[in-house]
User: Which sequence fits this backbone?
């Protein structure tokens, strides 16, 4: 593993100085970097549960996430610490500050980054698939963000589905934030395969190809949304991508032609924080806009409001379940009503509306489940 500007060979420390024990939740308010990895691995060594926070959060949205997490400790970058001032932080008691020493006076006790460094603690027990690894917050763009309870089996399954192609000799360039399931799953897949990763602190579309090459990477976490369209229009058409395989969305005639020019194969997927990449397309698929079909290990149905399968071609809601336990979410933290609404009859209800078909296309994001009428939920239609 490598993060720019950080020394090699420093191992995460898990020690009593944290004031953290097995089962506790630990907030991580950190950008991509070595400190995030040390805090993550140290907390996991102790059997604690990480709760990464979006580094763009401020004010009421940040306060909501902190109070929902109900954690006693936060590991926070000093340049983000001023956002904690004036908030109702619930039972938060201690902050581990990393980065520059300058930080505001906080309403909790503080410690320095030294508690993340030093001799690693012994691992008391290896985590099991049903143990909780993380609480990851939904985007909150259409309502209050919910904390998704993610077992180790869930994070592992997501990483395997999206980046299970990694091998020991590979090196992946991760530029998406670690508070997001894509990057977290990619990091787990990297560790599981024995590959290595370059964790980029930021992203620059104009220099992405050069940045990947400079980092010595032959794999990329993915090309997503407007990034793909931008690169398709701006990258040297005579150039070659520094990788030969990548998750890519959207798949359109233009982006497929871009991949062919740049010499890499691609696949697309559908996922959300709550589920472990349940839909995948074939490699180099040509059903443009498609999210794919259920992957191995996933059952999917399109149902009406009473969970009865709809007729072929009729619009219904996408529901999913896994044939291996603990490979989907374990509910929403401190939100039993939302958990009950999403998990019915043994299936997770995605809120997606679609007709059954061989190719499904995402049209727009739905508001949070249970808060808005079905007519405004996310819609999926067959790709053409």
Assistant:
């Amino acid at each position: 593993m490598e993060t720019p500007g950080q020394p090699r060979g420093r191992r995460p420390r898990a020690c009593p100085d944290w004031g953290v024990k097995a089962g506790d939740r630990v907030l991580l308010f950190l950008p991509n970097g070595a400190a995030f990895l040390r805090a993550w691995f140290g907390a996991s060594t102790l059997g604690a549960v990480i709760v990464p926070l979006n580094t763009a959060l401020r004010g009421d949205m940040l306060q909501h996430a902190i109070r929902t997490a109900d954690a006693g400790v936060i590991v926070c970058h000093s340049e983000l610490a001023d956002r904690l001032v004036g908030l109702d932080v619930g039972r938060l008691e201690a902050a581990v500050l990393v980065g520059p020493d300058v930080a505001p006076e906080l309403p909790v006790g503080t410690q320095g980054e030294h508690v993340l460094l030093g001799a690693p603690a012994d691992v008391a027990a290896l985590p099991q698939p049903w143990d909780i690894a993380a609480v990851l917050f939904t985007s909150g763009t259409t309502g209050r963000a919910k904390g998704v309870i993610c077992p180790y089996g869930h994070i592992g399954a997501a990483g395997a589905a999206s980046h299970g192609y990694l091998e020991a000799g590979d090196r992946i360039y991760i530029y998406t934030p670690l508070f997001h399931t894509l990057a977290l799953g990619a990091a787990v897949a990297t560790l599981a395969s024995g590959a290595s990763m370059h964790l980029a602190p930021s992203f620059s579309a104009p220099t992405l190809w050069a940045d990947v090459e400079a980092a010595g990477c032959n794999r990329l976490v993915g090309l997503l949304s407007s990034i793909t369209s931008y690169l398709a229009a701006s990258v040297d058409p005579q150039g070659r991508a520094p990788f030969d395989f990548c998750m890519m969305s959207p798949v359109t005639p233009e982006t497929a032609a871009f991949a062919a020019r740049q010499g890499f194969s691609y696949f697309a997927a559908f996922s959300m924080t709550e589920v472990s990449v349940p839909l995948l397309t074939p490699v180099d698929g040509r059903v443009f806009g498609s999210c794919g079909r259920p992957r191995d290990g996933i059952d999917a149905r399109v149902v009406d409001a009473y969970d009865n399968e709809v007729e072929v071609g009729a619009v219904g809601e996408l529901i999913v379940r896994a044939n291996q336990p603990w490979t989907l979410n374990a509910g929403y933290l401190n939100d039993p009503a939302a958990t009950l609404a999403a998990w019915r009859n043994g299936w997770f209800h995605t809120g997606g509306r679609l007709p059954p078909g061989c190719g499904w296309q995402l049209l727009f994001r739905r508001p949070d489940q249970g808060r808005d009428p079905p007519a405004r939920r996310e819609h999926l239609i067959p790709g053409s």
The chain has a mean pLDDT of 86. The chain has two domains: 20-126, 147-382. The chain has eight helices and 21 strands. Residues 54 and 72 are 18 Å apart (CA to CA).
